Task: structure prediction
Amino acid sequence: MEKQQLVIIGSGPAGYTAAIYAARANLAPVLFEGFFSGPAGGQLMTTTDVENYPGFAEGVTGPELMDAFRNQAIRFGTEMVREDVEKVDLTSGSFKVFGKKREIEAKSVIIATGATAKRLDIKGAGEDGFWQKGVTACAICDGAMPIFRGNELYVIGGGDSAVEEAIFLTKYGSRVFLVHRRDELRASKIMAKRAIDHPKIEILWNSEISCIEGDKVVKSVTLKNTLSQKEEKRDAAGVFFAIGHTPNTAFLGGQLQTNEQGYLLVKPGTSLTNIPGVFAAGDVQDAIYRQAITAAGSGCMAAIDAERYLAHNE
Result:
């Protein structure tokens, strides 16, 4: 088994930024970008316009932004491996990383595998439909896009996140409809009251979206009442999934501490996990912000933490 100082698992803003900092610190990082688990570059590879990343006044597409991150990491000496990591062994001070073909024993590991937004199997919502053409899973990322401004928008969900996204979208949409399968929100009482009292939000109780239609972008949704089964077609410019995320941690086999939702726990203000020498960055440890810039920032932290760990244990 080959030996390396640092292995980074996961690409995207967190993984690539960690690689940039680690490579510039002469740590010669090896980064597993993934393959079957999703596109190298993470969720931004399925995003069209990114308008809130600093330095791009006219916006930039997600793939362009990730290509720039990746090329910068390669420039400083990061070795990219286009494989999924199937499992890891973190039981000793020397960590074993098992890729599809490649196996590495590393002195330190950065986990930056992100989280996957939960989506429903709705006709017209998939990759072959209107995903990223009016259907999205991040209001904060995409809500300000021109196609949503001044139009009727639909948020699917009933928890605090769904309410937060609905309230956020009232800045841009003419009206926001919160679609919930039940007759009571799962959100906290204070958040539920904010949604109910908001003049631009209407809650569609006992409802679900059964179909999304349009031309180049979303133009309408079909609503179905879960009690009567009656369907109604309505104009819509956007559909936002707000039903949670799943952290990509299954390959870790429960070796690192997580919270109840499965996000990796880190020491506050750091990237340190419960195992010395193992660090976490990006959405895999961030259940709150989940933005490209916060992921990049935590990737920087993880690389610096790893550098200090290696120097201390050299």
Observations:
- The longest strand covers residues 103-111.
- The CA atoms of residues 12 and 42 lie 5 Å apart.
- The two ends are 20 Å apart (CA to CA).
- The chain has a mean pLDDT of 93.
